[in-house]
Amino acid sequence: MDRVIRARVLDKKGRSLPDANVKVFLGGNYFGEASAASSNAGTVYTFQINDSTVDVALRAEYNGQVPQDARLSTEVNEWDFVFPVEITVPRDKPFWEEHFAGLLGVAFIVLLATIALVLKKEPTQLQYRVLIGILAIGLAGVGTELRGFLHVELSLGKQLAVTAAGALAIFVLIYFFRPA
């Protein structure tokens, strides 16, 4: 009966290591090896073995690190090697693009603080609503950078009900309630 052995070579944060090498030994004899170039994008190394009763040993090597060995029992067909290194993952997007909403939120809050310093007298009702709108948008933008989840259910009388989550919930809280 055939046996399929799968191995992964990871860094200490669980990310696949490029340019790793995995060797397979059957019954103490060299069977074959796979490298990142010949495997599935360096993530899973797969070996097809024709004898399911033979003793299987794996050896993973990575970039000058001490090689790691593993002996697999007949019930184990998958193994993860974890090396004490950390690779840097290139960003898909530039920083400003990935955090645009948060940066825009900070810009709105700075704009609001500037306007508040310029207005030395009591703002009119229209100015007040505009300032609250700017504050709500700014804090919602900053809220996109926060981890976690916020859920708000709001009833305004018998006719209006609002349900919001995440950054929109922050906007609803600030816009519909007068900040202190």
Structure description:
The chain is α+β, with helices and mostly antiparallel strands and 180 residues long. The chain folds into two domains: 3-82, Carboxypeptidase-like, regulatory domain (Immunoglobulin-like); 95-176, no CATH class. Helices cover 29% and strands 30% of the residues. It is built from four helices and nine strands; from the N terminus they run E-E-E-E-E-E-E-H-H-H-E-E-H. It has helices at 95-98, 100-118, 125-143, 167-176, and strands at residues 3-10, 21-26, 29-35, 45-49, 56-61, 68-72, 78-82, 151-156, 160-165. The protein has a four-stranded antiparallel sheet with strand order 3-2-5-6, with no helix packed on it. Strand 2 and strand 3 (29-35) form a beta hairpin. Helix 2 runs antiparallel to helix 3 (125-143) and helix 3 packs antiparallel against helix 4. The longest helix is centred in the middle third of the chain and has 19 residues, at 100-118. It is elongated. The termini are far apart. Residues 37-42 have low confidence and may be disordered.
